[in-house]
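pasting for ref
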Amino acid sequence: MSITIAMVAGEASGDMLAAHLIAALKKHLPDVRFVGIGGPRMEAQGFDAWWPAEKLSVRGYAEVLRHYREITGIRRKLLARLKVEQPSVFIGVDAPDFNLWLERRLKSRGIPTIHYVSPSVWAWRGGRIKSIARAVTHMLALFPFEPKLYRQQDVPVSYVGHPLADMIPLERDRIAARERLDIDGAGPVVALLPGSRQSELRCMGELFIETAQLFAARFPTARFLVPLATRETRNLFETGIWKLGAQEMPIKLMFGHAQEALAAADVALVASGTATLEAALIKTPLVAAYRMSPWSWRLMRRMRYQPWVALPNILAGRFVVPEFLQDDATAENLAQALGNLYADSLLREKLEQVFGEIHRTLRQNTAEKAAAAILPYIHGGSASA
């Protein structure tokens, strides 16, 4: 009997997670077919993308509302197609607002639903956990503090760690990274990661350029590495460079290669999200920043449970990296924090030690653990919590 696994991943980080999971599952199921919504990394593993992941790559209530009709239309069409396909299992990779709706309807039709990446119920909108229980057959949690929350609600859950912790070496080699990027000479090297979505570049692209200008005024020999995920985000950043008169700045734009940029950098300015964890795992001291539409920010701020937003702070349970959100995310604040971090070698050493502890905790051979939790459902059984 042929096996079809349906998957939905909605952005660059989900594409990466899903691609590694597909590779792990194929070791056990060489003839399996993967279909749904996904990105280029998934397609490189043989995934049949009915819609591209980019269609779901919006963040914040205001941004989602602007694309609401298109996104809900895709979701209805996908559900109809999956009802016909009857996949052996559905795996929703992150994108909870899209996937949980879909999972609830597929689960009611007897299709096992796996949700890979716990929604941030520990950070905001904790009331969702009851609706998650109705939608999800099994939760795959990336962080060690998450399973307890689901077990309290009798949701089968497995802690699988984070695949970035498996992919990234425990020790970084800054010299080798700089050689690969042809960076030589003295002076600070700063990585700027303003986000992977177009909406993030519109909110933060010029902010990051202004920050670089102020940092360079303090450290004239500074150089900047800017990895960008797509042609569209690169175009937005280049437009910001011209608008702000920064054409002569030593800014190197890169297609992807975020990990190489972070490994080569002394410090980094990172849009809050998975990239902050990536920087921590590479052991690069960072400053986290985030801006969104004012309306989205007002709603998010009221529903936050924790004082932290950046993942290194959440995992450490305290402020270990500076984070500046919304109105506090000014070029002056960010440049000052970056400059202070670069100037304090002792602080950077302490940060690298904290990041090492986080790395070892999350290093769990994630893709194989996730595949092991999923396989019993494909074979008609159920996995234990």
